[in-house]
Every structure is written in C-alpha cells, then in structure tokens.
Amino acid sequence: MSACPKSSWGWVKALLHSIYDQPDAEAVHAQYDRVLDALTDKLPDVAAHLDAARAELLAFTAFPKEIWRQVWSNNPNERLNREIRRRTDVVGIFPDRDAITRLVGAVLAEQHDEWAEGRRYLGLDVLARARTRASAEHATTATGQPELEPAA
What is the mean pLDDT of residues 111-128? Predict the structure, then answer.
C-alpha cells in the first residue's frame, strides 16, 4: 500500500484478496495477471510495484493447497511477539541488557519446547508431502515425462 494512494486502498486491497481466493496455482497466476492489467491503466506505479514483487507474492503456490493459509499468515510470529511483549510489560524496567536477554531467551526456549513436543503450526507430514512434490516436479523434464536417471 506504500505505492498506492490512500483513496484507492479499498479497491486495491479487494483486488489483492481476489488473488488469494483462487482454487489452484494456475488460477492464482491468471488472476494476478488480470489484477496487473486492471491496475496498469489507473495506478501504473502500483502495477509496477506488484509486477516487481511477483515472485515473492506468488511463492505460496509452490506449496500444497492445504497449507496455503499457514504460508500466508504470520500468526505464529505475531503470537510470539505478543507473548514477549506481555512478559516484558510485567517487568516494566529491566536493570540491564542481560536481564531482558534472559527473559526473552526463556520465552523463546519455552516456545521451542512446545514446538518440539508436537504442537506445530505446520505438520511434518504436510511438509514432507510438499518436499516430495517439489522433488517430483524438479525431476520432470520439459516434455512432462519423469526422468529415468538423474542428469550427470
């Protein structure tokens, strides 16, 4: 939204959300092209900005559809930041830099323990399937046929 006039935020935001509402990767890329076409006439700076960021904005399409929502979201980071803020607000003023480092380190260690015990945002089975799928796509030749032997 930094390249967009404030009066157009609602319209541009609706267009961007339409990209993420698509059912598959092909539809996402096609909708992205349609959004760029719509923005080119009215907001050429925004269109140029989005075109330059295409790879980053559409990177989620390389993952399986069932984890797109987790890939889009930064909820785990926000939750962790809220927990750190909550704990540091309780203390108020820290005597020195080491004290805050110890407190934040303890919060991070606690979060790591929760992750290690199985409370994961992304399941390992889904990540393994994504990796298998990416490997299979990488091993496919331009003809669409899987390679029989790895290239030397």
Answer: 66
CB atoms within 10 A of CB 49: 15
Residue 120: φ, ψ to 5°? -105, 150
Tokens of 102: 């110890």
Q: Are 80 and 34 in contact (CB under 8 A)?
A: no
- Higher-confidence residue of 44 and 115: namely 44
Containing 116, the helix (H) or strand (E) segment is: helix 97-116
Q: How many CB atoms lie within 10 A of CB 138?
A: 8
Is residue 143 pLDDT above 60, yes or no? no
The Cα–Cα gap between 25 and 34 comes to 14
Residue 39 has a CB neighbour count (10 Å cut-off) of: 23
Helix 9-20 to helix 25-42 angle (10° resolution) is: 160
Distance of CA 121 to the CA centre of its chain: 13
Query: Global pTM?
Result: 0.58
Which pLDDT belongs to residue 152? 40
